[in-house]
Fold Fe2OG dioxygenase domain-containing protein.
Amino acid sequence: MEIERVQDISSSSLLTEAIPLEFIRSEKEQPAITTFRGPTPAIPVVDLSDSDVESVARAVVKASEEWGIFQVVNHGIPTELIRRLQEVGRKFFELPSSEKESVAKPENSKDIEGYGTKLQKDLEGKKAWVDHLFHRIWPPSCVNYRFWPKNPPEYREVNEEYAVHVKKLSEKLLGILSEGLGLWREALKEGLGGDMAEYMMKINYYPPCPRPDLALGVPAHTDLSGITLLVPNQVPGLQVFKDDHWFDAEYIPSAVIVHIGDQILRLSNGRYKNVLHRTTVDKEKTRMSWPVFLEPHGEMIVGPLPELIRDDNPPKFKPFAFKDYSYRKLNKLPLD
């Protein structure tokens, strides 16, 4: 069965100024109604080049406890590499449909790797205004080049170089967060599977939408991952839920946006927040983002770290193998 891609729906919808019914969100989700319009609190920004290492650590820990999201600047990933990563991703989505479909997720696959559209079950049957590409970039043992675009030709080289830098940055942040819990620096890395943890690249492609007031690129969710490191293009769209309001996230060129995901929430026994976020779309411009999800391998059991559990801090979460946790969450099944 041929799947209709949002990129194609966008092309036809822009001619009619209307969108199919399944993309129109209920009033409790529509961005025109639910976005906060007053003074917006700024998502914390942390300069990782600051020579005051303790101040940097405090800022990362505080942002993770209070927001579950922060932006890092001077993070060590070369600006030119981010530009190239975005360029090869954009070029892939500009290819003819037949070429994109050559790396499509197989219809019966239990994995998420590949080019696709629908990701998870929606209880109201609604669809998100986004196409995507997933593929693992690290460790080499779990990379499947079958889902890496052959075009543009430099796609593989750029993504392999980016993987090295994003791994280094994520391990630095995990070290800070581990010490913020009063644990040894490798605690959270090991809790996610150590060197067996997997880095999953996703490219989100949100084409122009004639009714951005009614649709969402991605509905409200928290990330399945331990931690997510994301770079967007310059078209705004990320929104964060805090203090009962949806706030627009500021775009900072070359910054990396860091999301605390479900697995760090659970490993830290609730000390660090998993950020609830969503994506809006634009009427005239294509928004794109490149999140990398640091995830445990499927068999890894993740629950609160034993070192944190005391009489006054009992476990708040039930341990799950990551593959079971993912399946239950994506299919809206209970997690207690």
In short: The mean pLDDT is 95. The two ends are 36 Å apart (CA to CA). DSSP finds nine helices and 14 strands in the chain. The longest strand covers residues 198-206.
